[in-house]
């Protein structure tokens, strides 16, 4: 092998290594394709929590599908409740960090007209998602959405859940009142929920 070819080969291998490293780093920021066909993309979470005044909220799409446990699941079945909709993946370390907070607040608010739902994405094997739920005592249902199709149902230029993890809080009319493009602490989650629980 000539010196020029060897040098070119080393450069190619180095570039491949850098690309692989970038993929690993982006895995939990959400900066990656949402399906094998590459038609679904997520952007990196900004860390922002956006709260929308009552008169300016837009209605969330009526999501429908099957849960991680294979049961039928529909957002409209929880009409009249405050709904916390969390996008997560078992492969995502920020999702693992916030899971205990979500589970605790879900348990504490279940008798206050609050329903937690998940959207599990990019887990190609349901077993991984189910193991995550067991590990973090997640007893509320999650849509199984490996390709991100449900997330795409949110219209462009609206407060869509465009990062992993991200969380939407819907008011009792099914409208998006809060969006968080980050993993949430228990305090942040309660701060987003309490005004909607108290609203009549």
TrEMBL record:
Q: Which residues form a coiled coil?
A: none
Q: Which residues form the signal peptide?
A: 1-27
Chain ranges passing through the membrane: none
Keyword Signal belongs to the record: yes
Stored Pfam families: AhpC-TSA
What the entry lists under CDD domains is as follows: TlpA_like_family
Q: Where in the cell is it found?
A: Cell envelope
PROSITE patterns documented for this protein: PROKAR_LIPOPROTEIN, THIOREDOXIN_2
Query: Per the database record, which ranges form the Thioredoxin domain?
Result: 54-198
Tell me which UniProt keywords the record has, alphabetically.
Cytochrome c-type biogenesis, Disulfide bond, Redox-active center, Signal, Signal-anchor, Transmembrane
Looking up InterPro entries in the UniProt record yields: AhpC/TSA, Thioredoxin-like_sf, Thioredoxin_domain, Thioredoxin_ResA/DsbE_sf
Q: Which domain of life is it from?
A: Bacteria
* PANTHER family listed in its UniProt record: THIOL:DISULFIDE INTERCHANGE PROTEIN DSBE
Q: What is this protein called?
A: TlpA family protein disulfide reductase
The scientific name of the source species is Streptomyces tubbatahanensis
């Amino acid at each position: 092998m000539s010196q020029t070819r060897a040098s070119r080969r080393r450069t190619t291998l180095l570039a491949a290594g850098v690309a692989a490293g970038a993929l690993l780093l982006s895995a939990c920021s959400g900066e990656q394709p949402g399906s094998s066909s590459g038609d679904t993309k997520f952007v990196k979470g900004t860390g922002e929590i956006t709260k929308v005044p009552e008169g300016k909220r837009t209605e969330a799409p009526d999501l429908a599908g099957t849960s991680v446990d294979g049961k039928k699941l529909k957002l409209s079945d929880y009409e009249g409740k405050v709904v916390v909709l969390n996008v997560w993946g078992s492969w995502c370390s920020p999702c693992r960090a916030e899971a205990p907070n979500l589970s605790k607040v879900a348990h504490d608010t279940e008798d206050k007209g609050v329903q937690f739902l998940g959207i599990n994405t990019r887990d190609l094997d349901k077993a991984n998602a189910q193991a995550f739920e067991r590990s973090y005592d997640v007893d509320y249902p999650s849509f199984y959405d490996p390709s991100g199709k449900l997330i795409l149902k949110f219209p462009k230029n609206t407060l869509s859940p465009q990062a992993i993890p991200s969380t939407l809080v819907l008011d009792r009319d099914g409208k998006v009142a809060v969006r968080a493009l980050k993993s949430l602490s228990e305090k942040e989650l309660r701060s987003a929920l309490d005004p909607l629980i108290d609203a009549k």
